[in-house]
Amino acid sequence: MAARLMGYVSASNTPTIVLAGNEITVDYLVLAGGAGGGYGGGGGGGAGGLRSTVTATGGGGSLESALSLRTATFYSVSVGGGGAGDTNNSGTGTNGTDSTFSSITSTGGGGGGTFGSGAVTAGATGGSAGGGSKDGGAGGTRTASPVQGNNGGTSTGGASYGAGGGGGAGGAGGSGLVSEVGGAGGAGSASSITGSSVTRGGGGGGGTNAGTAGAAGSGGGGAGSGTTTGGNGTANLGGGAGGGFYPTGSGGAGGSGVVILRYLTSAGTIAIGAGLTGSTAVDGSYTVATITAGSGNVGWV
To answer: pLDDT digit string (tens) for 3-38?
Structure first.
């Protein structure tokens, strides 16, 4: 929320709200934390929701509009953490945490469904959704408004079907197939907001029973497993985690998100407040601020 200053109209002494500072246009990429994978033949975790004004936003949605902000004013930022994998057959992996910048919120990824003791479980809803558990679990549904990612993959049959992959920012999670073939994590989405192309928001692969586990989605997803714990999502890429093997493999942990801000260097100098971890770099006539952890405020002077 922007801070505002209170002023007075001298003729009537009537209070009025006066915005501080000069206008500054800020492009953004706000990526939420990826979700944890499911336990015991569990589905892959969904990637964190991705909203951006540069190159691509998640789920094939339209590019969003840059924000018109003010210098000498504070704006809130929070970087979402990755969700924990399911380690004790509790239903699904934990959803990722939302990331925010000013009025923009990206939704954490949905956890992968758990199979464990034999209960078929659907993937959870999220920015990108989790994959269904082995042996017939349904894929989760992506956040609908605004679209930020993709649906999780479904385990398409009954017994001996691998788990579905978690959805990614650029593609849906793959289906789990017969003969314990886990679905691949959905692909991430590439953005050049920093000046070079980076793929973020890959989904996690589905787990299996000693079969072919689901591959990690490009852009930080974790691989599913047919022998051990699912792979972790990558920090600051918002990747969903892989599902664990049946019957006792834990799901991996999702990767944390990131908030990236791009603005004309001539328009102002950013101050990254206490509680946030971040850095800046120059790309031509622009400055790019990358905030990798924490909650706090930013402003321009």
So the answer is: 444 333 334 444 444 456 899 999 999 999 999 999
| Residue 19 within a domain | no
Mean pLDDT value across residues 253-257: 99
- Sign (positive or negative) of CA dihedral 237, 240, 242, 244: positive
Beta strands in the chain (DSSP E): 5-9, 14-18, 23-31, 50-52, 67-70, 74-78, 99-101, 104-106, 189-191, 198-200, 258-264, 270-272, 276-283, 286-300
d(CA 263, CA 17): 26
Query: For the range 137-140, what are the long-range contacts, defined as Cβ-Cβ under 8 Å and sequence gap of 24 or more?
Result: 137/43, 137/113, 137/163, 137/164, 137/176, 138/113, 139/43, 139/164, 139/167, 139/172, 139/173, 140/46, 140/110, 140/113, 140/167
Residue 7 confidence (pLDDT): 37
Domain count, the chain: 1
If you search the block for the tokens 């469904």, which residue do you land on? 113
Q: Would 39 be classed as within a structural domain? A: yes
Domain span including residue 111: 1-9+26-301
Q: Residue 216 in contact with residue 185, Cβ under 8 Å?
A: yes
Query: Residue 167 in contact with residue 129, Cβ under 8 Å?
Result: yes
Give Rg (Cα) of the chain.
Answer: 21
- Asked, for residue 21, whether it belongs to a domain, the answer is no
pLDDT at residue 53 is higher than 90:
yes
This prediction has a pTM of: 0.94
Q: What is the DSSP letter of 257?
A: -
The set of residues, in sequence order, having a beta carbon less than 8 Å from that of 12 and lying 6+ positions away, is none
Tens of pLDDT, residue by residue over 132-163, are 999 999 999 999 889 999 999 999 999 999 99
Tokens 């998640």 correspond to what residue? 58
User: Is 180 part of any domain?
Assistant: yes
